Amino acid sequence: MEDVHPKFLLHLDKITEKKNKAKIFFPLCGKAVEMFYVAKRGHTIVGVEYIELAVKQFFEENKLSFATKPVREIDGDVYENEENNIKIYCGDFFKFSPSLETNVDGVWDRGGLEAVDVDQRGKYTDVMKSVMKRGAGCVSEVADRPKGEGPPFNLSADQITQLYDLKTPPEKVDYEPASEILKSMIVDGMFYYYYKIHG
């Protein structure tokens, strides 16, 4: 998307917990424009992405300089713009760990968990839980589509509860009817769930 996602703006306070300077995590971030939007408002940004081109495009399209250094833990590199407190790690998401980043205040998970293979969901949420602080808020976008179709894959509230070891089921805070492109992929729409990591 070229513009900031309307649902992101609507639920940003849930992600930041209304903090002025929150550390926000964008898993499988691509070149999400939301990262620079919140960075300009004083928040610290941590993204993880596998495709190098997407990471470079993020900095180029936002006219941001960056420095890189190798990160052996993820078999990749980190791209950093210190001026705006933006770090994007480019490498293997499943090798990401608290040795690189921790104490994340909030998460915008637009399509990450629903995109990974079903048998890798546990590995994905293990990474998420390891870097998020206790009580961190997460807003996740989940596809409303038949089971077995994907990616993106169907993901129920019960499955999110189990994967994140939640004490209470995630709150369904929004629903967005599918665009024509998504309808052609047998997607009826998108659920938006909000939940807190308990640690």
TrEMBL record:
GO terms for biological process: methylation. Pfam families: TPMT. It comes from the Eukaryota. SUPFAM superfamilies: S-adenosyl-L-methionine-dependent methyltransferases. InterPro entries: SAM-dependent_MTases_sf, TPMT. GO terms for cellular component: cytoplasm. It is an enzyme of class 2 (transferase). GO terms for molecular function: thiopurine S-methyltransferase activity. Keywords: Cytoplasm, Methyltransferase, S-adenosyl-L-methionine, Transferase. It catalyses: S-adenosyl-L-methionine + a thiopurine = S-adenosyl-L-homocysteine + a thiopurine S-methylether. Its EC number is 2.1.1.67. Gene3D superfamilies: Vaccinia Virus protein VP39. It is found in: Cytoplasm. The keyword Methyltransferase applies. Belongs to the class I-like SAM-binding methyltransferase superfamily. TPMT family. This is thiopurine S-methyltransferase.
